Amino acid sequence: MPEDMNLExxxxxxxxxxxxxxxxxxxxxxxxxxxxxxxVAAVATAWGGFQAAKGDGRQSILYAEAGVDxxxxxxxxxxxxxxxxxxxxxxxxxxxxxxxxxAQLQAMLERRFSPxxxxxxxxxxxxxxxxxxxxxxxxxxxxxxHNSQLEQAAHLNEEAAHAEEEGTHARETAEKYIGxxxxxxxxxxxxxxxxxxxxxxxxxxxxxxxxxxxxxxLYEVATLPRF
Length: 227
Prior knowledge:
It is a single chain. By secondary structure, the chain is mainly alpha-helical. The protein has five helices and no strands. It has one domain (33-223). The chain has helices at residues 2-99, 103-111, 115-125, 148-194, 200-223. It is rod-shaped, with a radius of gyration of 39 Å. The termini are far apart.
């Protein structure tokens, strides 16, 4: 009888130790998973912060370049407008000389035109402007007229607009990286908090939530452009 009782007690103790061992195994697995999540989230947080900082720097550089282009465009445009105004004033004097039939003055004024205005003036004369109502009002309205300074100013403004657009895009991308780092920080928080729970189911739930957030944040970072 005593031997039977001892066997029964030993059997019951073995049954109790089995779930304890199983629980410990799960805890070990959860701890290993938690460490891996912490490592990945920590590296990803540093990477996201690094990319966000580079994005801010990229925005500053592009905005500075756009500002320089705007200043240059303004300077060149003023010079081009002054050149066009000089040609227009000379053209008005030419019209007065033409009205007075002063051929000598007309020839002198034509020589004072800028080279590009002379080309447009020759094309404008071929339209017979004094007898054709639909003729352009002056050489500056002809397709042949090209003011290199005004064209350069337009090109610089286009480059400035493109640089500003890229700068804005860089800033938006940097903000997305910051959003991803917030998610990584939340993963770190969930993993750290899960270690404080004694209930195995709660710990598993917190780890599972952290894994889901980490996967989503990693996907977001993987689809963003690099700087």
